[in-house]
Design brief:
The chain is 35% helix and 21% strand. The protein has 3 domains: 288 residues, 3-Layer(bba) Sandwich (FAD/NAD(P)-binding domain), CATH 3.50.50; 34 residues, no CATH class; 113 residues, no CATH class. The strands form 8 sheets. Strands 1, 2, 8, 9, 10, 11 and 24 form a 7-stranded mixed beta sheet that branches. The structure holds flavin-adenine dinucleotide. Flavin-adenine dinucleotide binds next to helix 3, strand 3, strand 9, strand 19 and helix 13.
Length: 470
């Protein structure tokens, strides 16, 4: 924490100057227009790449803007390495672009998932697949049922993202950090990004915000709420003898639980299965340490979280090597380049999805995307207060409680795909995005091999009023 204290000291030396100035007014400036396209997508994570590729495949010219040096968002830079929340029993509910990722990753040997014949609950299947993380985490059955879920490699995710973006003709601009919307008469007409070459403007007819924190929508006049949830600095260990580790824990469950309890105490917050196997032999994914009370949109809070997490990882590592069979020769392969932020600002759009909608599996007539067994209405991608803007991904229009249960990578990708199709439809018809009929988005999703949730599954709740009203 010394670096933070030092920074505080520097501020203290200038206290007088700092105290006197609480805000500065920037001079107005001319910003060069560096690109123009029909659809602009801001944020190149799972939702953003899906939106950009879907819009391009639907015939629109597309510019995709990403602040970092690679695509993938939390799935690559945040090293979130299991695709889940995509099946309703044996029915696979999230299809489309996510399925293309899986197919391409499998061709590269960088994805692993249980075959259909092994997706059920039994001690044998748990022993075989539990440590891959490919189980139904919502289930209360013991052992948890093995289900369709996919463990993948983060660099493979970047590679496939590049392939998809390139194949679909998207104009990609990395190292471009969104800073300002261009809004004309309540309608989005472009965005400004900060770059090493100074500010740059990109003009367009429809903007899709996939930044995860509604950076664009929140500065464009859309309504939102600001909340927080766990943040996690994920890391990977290499040099692990996973066969030995699994053999030991299966033969000695009580002793392993006791060792893991001590490790988790040092980590300060972790799921029961704090390490999972990955497609790279000897490399395990550690979805921890979890930290509470940090604000993922505040740089000071994020700086403190980064320091705290790294200290916890370092102290747990010694104990892991010393006490956990199979981990004697392990070493820290890498720590995610970006801390995992689950929730910050959430859109409060034309419809706000509630916890009850998710838990009762409420079906909406304007459903355009699905998660495991829940449905996302088109209205939850539409901000109030600004036109020609769509929002897709983990910051979609939901209550904080609902978002916690519906923000995994596959549903975010489905929302992105739907938003991309809707954006392209608005451009070709000349309609406002809010006037695009959901039925056309549903048809576009089906054409692109995705399930929009227009046909409810047997366990959905059908609310006549909502069905008729939307
Ligand atoms: C620790 C952790 C564990 C998780 N575990 C799982 C799991 O096991 N399985 C699962 O499916 N999901 C999991 N999730 C959830 C999942 O990772 C996210 O909800 C999902 O990645 C959201 O996708 P997104 O595209 O909406 O946002 P993000 O992945 O956050 O992508 C946003 C993108 O926008 C870019 N961006 C942001 N701001 C700007 C800006 N101003 N200008 C330009 N670009 C910008 C970012 O760099 C990033 O590329 C986990 C999340 C966390 C944090």
């Amino acid at each position: 924490m010394n670096a933070i204290t030092d920074a505080d000291d520097v501020v203290d030396e200038n206290t007088e100057a700092v105290a006197a100035v609480t805000a500065v007014t920037l001079p107005s400036r001319d910003v060069p227009v560096v690109a123009e396209s029909e659809v602009i997508v801001v944020g190149g994570g799972p939702a953003g790449v899906s939106a950009a590729v879907a819009a391009a495949r639907s015939g629109a010219s597309v510019t995709l803007l990403e602040r970092y040096s690679s695509l993938g968002g939390l799935a690559s830079g945040g090293m979130v390495l299991v695709l889940d929340d995509m099946c309703n029993g044996s029915e696979i509910t999230v299809t489309g672009i996510v399925a293309e990722y899986v197919e391409r990753l499998e061709k590269y040997g960088l994805a692993v998932s249980p075959p259909e014949s092994e997706r059920f609950s039994s001690p044998e299947m748990w022993a075989k697949w539990g440590r891959w993380g490919t189980f139904d985490f919502q289930s209360h059955v013991t052992p948890k049922p093995i289900c369709y879920a996919v463990s993948f490699d983060p660099d493979g995710w970047k590679r496939v993202s590049n392939d998809l973006v390139q194949d679909s003709g998207v104009n990609l601009r990395l190292h471009s950090w969104f800073s300002q919307p261009i809004v004309t008469d309540g309608r989005m007409t472009g965005v400004v990004v900060e770059t090493k070459s100074g500010p740059q403007a990109i003009r367009g007819e429809v903007v899709i915000d996939t930044t995860g924190d509604i950076d664009v929508a929140s500065r464009s006049g859309a309504e939102f709420v600001h909340d927080k949830y766990l943040v996690t600095l994920v890391f990977r260990l290499a040099g692990v003898d996973t066969d030995a580790a699994e053999a030991y824990e299966q033969a000695n469950p009580r002793e392993t639980r006791a060792i893991n309890r001590k490790i988790k105490r040092l980590l300060g917050g972790a799921w029961e299965l704090w390490w999972l196997k990955t497609p790279s032999p000897g490399v395990v994914w550690c979805n921890c340490p979890h930290l509470t009370g940090f604000d993922g949109a505040d740089p000071v809070s994020l700086t403190m979280a980064e320091f705290e997490a790294r200290e916890r990882i370092a102290s747990a590592l010694e104990l892991i090597r010393q006490d956990l069979p199979g981990f004697e020769n392990c070493y820290l392969l890498d720590v995610a380049q970006q801390i995992g932020v689950r929730q910050t600002r959430l859109l409060q759009g034309e419809y706000v999805v509630t916890k009850e909608d998710i838990t009762t599996r409420r079906h909406f007539a304007d459903s355009v995307a699905r998660g495991r067994d829940y449905y996302t209405p088109y209205r939850a991608l539409l901000p109030r207060g600004v036109d020609q803007l769509l929002v897709a991904g983990r910051h979609y229009s939901a209550s904080p409680q609902a978002q916690r249960m519906s923000r995994e990578i596959p549903p975010c990708m489905a929302m992105g795909q739907a938003a991309g199709i809707a954006g392209a439809l608005a451009v070709s018809s000349g309609d406002l995005v809010r006037d695009v009929p959901a039925s056309l988005v549903q048809a576009g999703m089906r054409e692109q091999g995705a399930d929009p949730g227009d046909v409810p599954s047997a366990n959905a709740t059908i609310d006549e009023e909502l069905e008729l009203g939307s």
